[in-house]
Amino acid sequence: MLDLRTALVTGPVVLDGGLGTTLEAAGHDVTGELWSARVLAETPAAVRSAHARYAAAGAEVLTTGSYQIGFDNLAAAGFDAAQTRRLLHLSVRVAREGAAEAGRDAWVAASVGPYGATRADGSEYTGDDGLSVAELERWHRRRLEAIVDAEPDVLAIETIASPAEAEAVMRAIDGIGIPSWIALSAASRAFDAASLRETLAASARIAGVIAVGVNCCPPEAVASALADPVAVPFVVYPNSGETWDAAARTWSGEPGLPLIGLDGWLAAGARLIGGCCRTTPDDTAALAARLHARR
User: Fold this and answer.
1) Mind listing the domains of the chain with CATH numbers?
2) What is the rounded distance in angstroms from the CA atom of residue 288 to the CA atom of residue 282?
3) What digits encode the pLDDT tens for the residues 30-47?
4) Positions at the binding site
5) Residues annotated in a binding site for Zn(2+)
6) Rg (CA), the chain
7) 16 vs 31, 51, 113, CA distance in Å?
8) pLDDT of 173-190, one tens digit each?
9) Torsion over CA: 278, 15, 22, 67 (sign)
10) Which of 103, 131, 277, 284 has the most CB atoms at less than 10 Å from its CB?
11) CB 19 within 8 A of CB 47
12) In this predicted structure, what is the pLDDT of residue 33?
């Protein structure tokens, strides 16, 4: 396979969709504070199978189940540091195995969620984490160094909830040695339209960053985020259109990934495109068919 940066020059690449959503549909409980990370720890074969479903549906990038894995929240759940590192490594391995199970080639993107994701309190939608840029940098760097050892193809630094956390991850990936994309939480109230686009532009200038964009947001929030061109391709993977209630820990609204804006996203420079929360392998298949028809 080409490296992912080179592939983006040739045309759009299909990302997968909601791993937790697919695990939940298969009967696994993802309502706890560790979400899909708990399934990864207890039933890794289920996570491998979910990755295989996405690969079979046409996903060319498989995102690992490491989004919620941090050393502090795993310690609170009874995992020591060595066990947390093993779980991060396992997340990469089962994604590769999922692609092999489906008989498909796929890049493996190690999911690096925001600090708020490990708190399981919805703060990835608010940016209210109470930490300084330096504190966030130290927190991210520890996990990044652990997951880099597992040799994923790319780091999916995603749902970053504030300009301060974006600055922290930009510092943390300096010299990390693996290409990255940085996706901001366009649903976070810590960003307005101007600061979102300014942060995307700054992120795109960082060495090793191959794409920047938005994820975990309503599909209708994507277009404004792509209004200003940046130095690298855009990555886009919105939610299905449903809304998360952090207090009740439930989703509301109508499921399904609306792709009415796809042509506009592509025209604006989006090259990594997929789905986030509440999207399914069926949504990935529909997206892959649309993109392959354009090719």
Assistant:
1) 4-294 (3.20.20.330)
2) 10
3) 888 888 999 999 999 999
4) 216, 276-277
5) 216, 276-277
6) 17
7) 21, 8, 16
8) 999 999 999 999 998 999
9) negative
10) 284
11) yes
12) 83
